[in-house]
Specification:
The chain is of the alpha+beta class. It contains 5 helices and 13 strands. Strands 1, 2, 3, 4, 5, 6, 7 and 8 form an 8-stranded antiparallel sheet that branches. Strands 9-10-11 form a 3-stranded mixed sheet. The chain has a two-stranded antiparallel sheet with strand order 12-13.
């Protein structure tokens, strides 16, 4: 992987890779040594930097903490079985397009494509040793933007911070899961933010998902908000059925996330 622009890298002096058992990974537990940080201020994106992974310093008045201007993406890098340890980032451009759609819906500044793509490539190259090689495992990539302006009045932020961090993960589900068809609570309504990967969508789904787990289910299968008669998507993924040898999936709308895996299946 080669990048076209020079993104400064400040390497960590103390790698944490030795603390990770690659054969016993837990999803979301480990973070790699470095992260990318880039700020938006005065109407322009500044120089992106790759620095050692560390906590963020926030004012208690940071707008994202109060009014929900926070958007993320989720994607993966895989170590290929051939090609001298070559690493592949799965459908990077498609994830960027969805990222921008989510940011636009939340009235947030979107980082330029080159900062997103080349930043991811440079970050993965920097922490290439963290990409696991066991079957089904991958390096999870988490780009996100949050409103960083410190101002507690209700307003669209004028400042944003773009961050990317990564971490090795196993397969999320190794066994079939049990899902509950939800017919009381809703995940999203038409005209809302269901298609965007904004934090509020996930926070709002916690309560009915928690109730479902107390009843012995793993996830919720969401239905439409008006009739509860049509399947829309599941708690962490789009949903597909095979009916009479035909692949059937709900059509995209502003209440369904445009899944990259979904799109890949349909394209194939």
């Amino acid at each position: 992987m080669e990048t076209l622009t020079d993104i400064p890298v400040r390497k960590t002096k103390h790698s944490r890779l030795a603390e990770v058992d690659p054969e016993h990974l837990e999803f979301g537990k480990y973070t790699s040594d470095h992260m990318l940080v880039c700020d938006y201020e005065n109407g322009a994106w500044q120089q992106p930097l790759i620095v050692p992974f560390a906590n963020l310093s926030l004012s208690p008045a940071t707008l994202a903490l109060h009014y929900g201007q926070t958007v993320f993406e989720g994607m993966k890098a895989f170590r290929m079985s051939s090609g001298e340890g070559r690493v592949n980032i799965f459908r990077l451009d498609k994830h960027y397009d969805r990222f921008v759609q989510s940011l636009d819906r939340m009235c947030m500044a979107a980082p330029p494509r080159e900062i997103f793509t080349e930043g991811l490539m440079k970050l993965v190259e920097t922490d290439k040793a963290w990409v696991p090689s066991s079957k089904g495992s991958s390096l999870y990539l988490r780009p996100f933007v949050y409103a960083s302006e410190a101002r507690f009045g209700v307003k669209v932020s004028d400042q944003y911070r773009f961050v990317i961090f990564t971490g090795p993960v196993p397969e999320l589900y190794v066994k079939p899961i049990k899902v509950k068809v939800e017919t009381e609570y809703i995940r999203a309504a038409r005209g809302g933010t269901g298609f965007a990967k904004c934090g509020g969508n996930y926070g709002g789904a916690y309560y009915p998902t928690q109730l479902a787990r107390q009843q012995g289910y793993d996830q919720v299968l969401w239905t439409d908000s008006s009739e509860h008669g049509y399947i829309e998507e599941s708690g962490m993924m789009n949903v597909m059925f095979v009916i009479n040898d035909k692949l059937v999936t709900p059509p995209l709308s502003d209440s369904i996330l445009d899944g990259v895996t979904r799109d890949s299946f349909l394209a194939l």
